[in-house]
Amino acid sequence: MVREKVRIATRGSMLALQQSGIIKDALERLWPQIGFEFRIIKTTGDTITGVPLAKVGGKGLFVKEIEDALLDGSADLAVHSMKDVPALLPAGLDIVAVPKREDPRDALIIREGNSLSDLCNGALVGTSSLRRAAQIRALRPDLKVRDLRGNLDTRLRKLDQGLFDAIILASAGLKRMGWHERITVYMDPVEFIPAVGQGALAIEARVDDRRMLDLLAPLDHAETSVAVLAERSFLKELEGGCQVPIGGHASVAGKMVKLSGLVASLDGGRLFRTTRAAPVEDAAMLGKEVALELRGLGAGGILDEVYGAGVLDPGGV
Fold this sequence. Notes:
Helices cover 34% and strands 23% of the residues. It is an alpha/beta fold. Strand 11 and strand 12 form a beta hairpin.
């Protein structure tokens, strides 16, 4: 008897394989009679490493080739970092399960010091995200912010080599790699708002593959799905891939979901933020309402400025 094989599409970075391995292990426990194997795919974002994301397209760079494999049938499911997934998905594909979220907060890693205030005037901070850059500039306008690309281990190595005084990364990735001891400061997710979907994984599959939908359904975590739905609805309403520094973080308590949203200017000089709550069944509408409120507060001007200037995808990863 031939054993059924299920192919999991994933990027080949250490973190991507670690994250996909978490899903593979969970599926093997659920369905021991099925063989699960990786199909490692190099994405555009993996091949272009020496250029800021703002110059090459940002959101979507780390998922397109993987989605192509799903669409042509050479992969059965895909595992992404949710924050890399654009608000709009290709026809025929959907996020069919969202496992329980890891820590959504941003992490400040300082080479010498114990807090943001320990960084001296003019200290150099590295990040690949304009969302993080805008918020750190708002907190400390005296700091210098420079683009930092590369896998997690590469970014940490550049810090250790003295190329930066501090870097900002996602706590989730560091924790999944077992490197949480490197974190100097956890940034408050209401005050320093994370990327939409940060800390969550997205399991994507073909919507007409009923067999795969049934296999993946047990991996979905209800509270995380509600929170991510609110965040992605917010992002979609703003029509923001990563076109401007946009942040969104939702949390669920009982039957209510609370969402904090952010839109910032590229230089961090203008930050618009708000927080609203709604019943969990209204999560999608909550995202739209927070987006509309931010537009009314003045964020619409920033969106118009950046889109009008043709700035490409600089910010939420």
